Structures are given as structure tokens and as C-alpha cells.
């Protein structure tokens, strides 16, 4: 895996996978209450879907399919950010929450850039 100077990876499949792992680990340390339970279910689905759809995009058989899958990646990224923002989070975990939100913002920009280049 290749790294660039700001420690972000060129390999977007691996980066989206590691993001989903980080979300999963973040969810494990959150308070177990009814509100967080429902939000974290949605959060884990959308966070995992980003990478899964990017893998599908890379395996697409046509440009149209690639664009559609990449649009889904961007949509799932925005949904993940929404669930992260809605989540109740103890003070000690807020830094990780903000880091995950920032990563989702970067993913949205990356997928937006990919879509722009496909036009």
C-alpha cells in the first residue's frame, strides 16, 4: 500500500475498509442505550456500504455502472456523516467522532472529484 505525505492512502478500497473498521471500533465503546442502538445500526450499514460499493464500482462492466456505483459511494458517505453527527457521544470519544466525520468529508470530496472526471 502506498502512502502520501499526509498519511492518507492512495488505495481507496483499503482506505474505505479501514474507515469501516474504525467506525465499528468506535461503536463498540459508545454507551449502550436505545437511541444509540438504532443510530449505530444505520451508521455501521452506511459506513460499510461505502467500501463495498467502491469495490463494485471498480469491478463495473461499463462507465455508466461505474458512475452509478460511485454516486452510491458518495451518497453513503453523506449518510454516514449524518449518523455520526446525530450520535450521542461521551466527551472522551468526541475526538474520534470528529475524526470520522472529517474522513467522511474527505471521501465525499474524493468521490465528487471522481464523478467530475467521468463527465
From TrEMBL:
Superkingdom field: Bacteria
Matches recorded under InterPro entries: 23S_rRNA-intervening_sequence, 23S_rRNA_IVS_sf
SUPFAM superfamilies xrefs: IVS-encoded protein-like
Transmembrane parts of this sequence: none
The protein's name in its UniProt record: Four helix bundle protein
Amino acid at each position: 500500500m502506498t502512502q502520501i505525505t499526509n498519511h492518507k492512502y492512495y488505495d481507496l478500497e483499503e482506505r474505505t475498509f479501514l474507515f469501516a473498521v474504525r467506525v465499528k471500533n468506535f461503536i463498540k465503546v459508545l454507551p449502550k442505550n436505545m437511541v444509540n442502538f438504532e443510530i449505530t445500526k444505520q451508521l455501521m450499514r452506511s459506513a460499510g456500504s461505502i467500501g463495498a460499493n467502491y469495490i463494485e464500482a471498480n469491478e463495473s462492466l461499463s462507465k455508466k455502472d461505474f458512475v452509478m456505483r460511485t454516486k452510491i459511494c458518495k451518497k453513503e458517505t453523506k449518510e454516514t456523516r449524518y449518523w455520526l453527527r446525530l450520535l450521542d457521544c461521551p466527551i472522551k470519544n468526541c475526538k474520534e467522532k470528529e475524526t470520522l466525520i472529517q474522513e467522511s468529508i474527505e471521501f465525499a470530496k474524493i468521490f465528487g472529484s471522481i464523478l467530475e472526471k467521468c463527465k
